[in-house]
Design goal:
Blueprint lengths: L11 H20 L6 H8 L8 E2 L3 E3 L5 E3 L4 E2 L3 E4 L4 E3 L4 E2 L4 E3 L1 E2 L4 H6 L2 E2 L2 E3 L4 E2 L4 E2 L4 E2 L4 E2 L4 E2 L7 E4 L4 E5 L6
Parallel strand pairs: 1-4, 2-5, 3-6, 4-7, 5-8, 6-11, 7-12, 8-13, 11-14, 12-15, 13-16, 15-17
Antiparallel strand pairs: 9-10, 17-18
C-alpha cells in the first residue's frame, strides 16, 4: 500500500487496522476533546508527526501513522485524510475547515475496482494555506508558501509561491515576489 502497489482494502488485517484507528478517533473527536489527554491522543493517532500538531475535531483518517506533519501545523475541523499512502505537511502550514486529502485511487475498470486500489503520496510544503473545503487528490505536491483557494480541487502539482484556485485548480498568480 505505502509502496503504491495494488492492495485489497477490505481484508481482515486492513479492517482491523482501521477499526483500531476509529477507536482513537472517537476519543479524539468525542470523549477526550480538550481534556488533559487531548494532545496525547493526537500524538497516539499521528505518531510520525510533530508533538505540537493541532487537529480541531472532528477529524477523520484511515490510519494516522501515515501522516507526517511538521512543527506548528494546524488542521481545522472537518478534515478527512485518506492516508493509505503518506501525507506530508510542512511546518507552519494551515488547513481551513473541511479540507480533504486523498491518497487512495481506484481503477476505472469495474472488474479491477472490485479487486484492488492503490495509493499515491501527497506532499504539502511549508508555510502553505489550504482554503476551506479544498480537495487534494492522490500524487499531488504543493510547493512551499503556496495558497490553495477555498473550494479548489487540486489535481496537479502546484509550484512554490503560487496561488491556485478552482475546479480543477489552476495557478492564477505568483506569490511572495518582492517588487521595487
Amino acid at each position: 500500500m505505502l509502496a503504491g502497489e495494488p492492495y485489497t482494502a477490505h481484508g481482515e488485517e486492513m479492517i482491523g487496522l482501521r477499526t483500531k484507528v476509529k477507536k482513537i478517533l472517537h476519543r479524539l473527536n468525542v470523549t477526550e476533546y480538550y481534556t488533559d489527554k487531548f494532545q496525547d491522543t493526537i500524538n497516539e493517532l499521528c505518531p510520525n508527526s510533530a508533538k505540537n500538531l493541532h487537529l480541531e475535531p472532528p477529524f477523520y483518517c484511515d490510519y494516522g501513522e501515515h501522516i507526517y506533519a511538521e512543527e506548528n501545523v494546524f488542521i481545522n475541523f472537518g478534515a478527512v485524510f485518506l492516508d493509505g499512502g503518506t501525507i506530508r505537511i510542512g511546518a507552519n502550514t494551515l488547513l481551513a475547515p473541511g479540507v480533504h486529502i486523498y491518497t487512495a485511487r481506484h481503477p476505472l475498470d469495474i472488474a479491477d475496482r472490485r479487486e484492488w486500489e492503490d495509493c499515491k503520496p501527497v506532499v504539502i510544503g511549508k508555510d502553505c494555506w489550504i482554503g476551506g473545503h479544498s480537495t487534494i487528490l492522490p500524487g499531488v505536491t504543493i510547493g512551499d508558501r503556496s495558497v490553495i483557494g477555498a473550494g479548489s480541487v487540486v489535481t496537479k502539482d502546484v509550484p512554490a509561491d503560487s496561488l491556485a484556485v478552482g475546479n480543477p485548480a489552476r495557478i492564477v498568480k505568483k506569490l511572495n515576489i518582492k517588487t521595487k
